[in-house]
Amino acid sequence: MEFKRRRYNHSYLNIAPLVDVVFLLLLFFMLTSHFIEEQSIRVRLPESRTSEYTERAGIKIFINEKGDVILNRKKVKVEDLHTLLKEQLPLEKTKNVEIRADRDVKVSLLMRVIDEIRLSGINDFNIVTEKAY
User: Fold this and answer.
1) What's the mean pLDDT in 15-35?
2) CA–CA separation, 46 vs 128, rounded Å?
3) Residue 62 backbone phi and psi in degrees, to 5
């Protein structure tokens, strides 16, 4: 008597080429992506334990440790800030302002900048800090 052998049909998916393709795509996107660079104005931000992440603002104002107020990469006088903001406001998509003040800036200067922002008609502004852990 002759017995027939049962043939098992093992069907499995070879995922080795799939892994290769995924790694190549990952490498491609990592090498071709553009990283967002911040403006090159050195400001040591103050730390806060309660800071939260918000979307980036349209208008950015920098105050460095010397007390210079910088708007659009140009040094401006504090007194002229509200007129410059009124001129720039219609050009921006978002109507909020981001203040990046150095941690050694006097509070009186920061308050003057906030007053000038409010005089220009902007009530939505953020003071940027670093997250303290």
Assistant:
1) 88
2) 8
3) -110, 140
